[in-house]
Amino acid sequence: MTSAAAVSTARPAVTPARLPSLTGLRWIAALLVFGFHAGTMRIIAEPDYKAVVDALFTLGLSGVQFFFILSGFVLVWSARVGDSRRTFWRRRVAKIYPNHVVLWGAALLVAWWFADPVLPAVALENLLLLQAWDPRMGWFYSVNTVSWSLSCEFFFYLCLPLALPLLRRASPKLLWVLIVALPLLILALWPAQQLVPEVSRWWFTQIFPPVRSLEFWLGAVAAELMRRGLWRGPGLTVASLVFVGTWVAAAQWIRAELWTTLLAVAYLLVITAAADADVRDKRSPWRSRPLVWLGEVSFAFYLVHVLVMTSVLRWSGDWGTGFTGWRGPAVVLGFLAVNLVLAGLLHRFVETPMMRRLAPRRPARPASVPRQRAGGPDAAGESGQQTNGRSTYADSR
Fold it and tell me: Where is the composition biased (Low complexity) (predicted)?
């Protein structure tokens, strides 16, 4: 089997740089998606309270954009010499598939409880993570609706080991051209959607895996530049301020076809700055123990939150009606707590043990090799490595 990472001049093994800030940031992205869905479900009926939620989370769906960029960055950053394509693919399946299967089964049980019809072909397509390729509205958002993003990720995982040798051999000039070109391609998708039938335009810009892969490759190229010590970006404080400024401006004044591109750039700056801060042992507010734990369960949280909220609201008869007064914010906070508990259980009893059982073991690194500074040619951080079945570094999910 051709190695996925042995693609250029061999580099000596180095102690992996931990990236806990990226793990903490994963929780912020998951929280943005949760807030967006809480707002679109109209749980809060009080206009003043709803206005606050809308102001904070109106762009929350872009949290998925963050996950895609982070996925590309982490997987290129952590690629190891000697890993085969089969090993890489097996590790990624072990990471995402057990949680997906559990939520797939839970969603079908909920559909049965509410007597919602589910076509066998729809259920099978979702189980196999093929739904993002299907432009039919009832198909790409089928079963557990948020799993469409896993369908995209699965495509990214299939492509990366094939593209990584080219990325490793690419000249610095080409990498910088890609860093500029990829956001421009994201921007170009908005006029390009006019070539697609109107009924499929949302699917084309928001769901279609090759289109969403532009964000993944943006993170991947930035990681390769950082590995070579060529990345030139702002520090974490400046990057965070740029992101906040971009978020506020995008929410208030900028059209969707532009803010999608601007937020992709802002997310990239925060991700690279946080990674650099971790490897260089600089200050970072995102690596506290509570935030790291929240980041570790964020994948499970993302998978459970919509199914839990919609099921409870339908069961209680409050779907689409909202809660008046203080009860609206209280219900949202209650959903946040319940989803966190369920995510913690899923992470503890499904995700972690199945990773230990299904993922191939990585060979231990030499303990005596000194740690390298970020940006050096040998600073290939090991994000997503499993130690005793527990994720100790930032992962793509």
Answer: 365-374
What total of structural domains would you count in the chain?
Answer: 1
Positive or negative: CA dihedral 141, 76, 232, 270: positive
Q: Mapping DSSP to helix (H, G, I), strand (E, B) and coil, where does residue 44 land?
A: strand
Residue written as token pair 């740089």: 17
Pairing verdict, β 386-387 and 390-391: antiparallel
Q: Which two tokens stand for residue 144?
A: 């557990």
Task: List C-alpha distances in Å: 219 to 91, 124, 223, 285, 355.
Answer: 20, 31, 6, 22, 24
Expressed as residue numbers, the domain containing 127 is: 20-360+368-391
User: Whole-model pTM?
Assistant: 0.88
Rounded to whole angstroms, the Cα distance separating 28 from 24 reads: 7
The DSSP H or E segment spanning 372 is none
Q: Are 216 and 72 in contact (CB under 8 A)?
A: yes
- What number of H helices and E strands is found in the chain? 16, 2
Q: Does residue 201 lie within any of the structural domains?
A: yes
In this structure, are residues 377 and 73 in contact, taking their beta carbons and an 8 Å threshold?
A: no
CB–CB of 332/45 below 8 Å? Answer: no
| pLDDT tens sequence across 67-124 | 999 999 999 998 887 788 999 999 999 999 999 999 999 999 999 999 999 999 999 9
Cα separation, 73 vs 116, whole angstroms: 39
Q: How many CA atoms does the CB half-sphere of 89 hold within 13 Å?
A: 14
Which tokens belong to 211? 């289109």
> Is the residue at 5 inside a domain?
no
Q: Tell me the pLDDT tens digit for each residue of 45-60.
A: 999 999 999 888 989 9
Task: Provide the residue count of the chain.
Answer: 397
The answer to whether residue 1 is domain-embedded is: no
Q: Is residue 243 in some structural domain?
A: yes
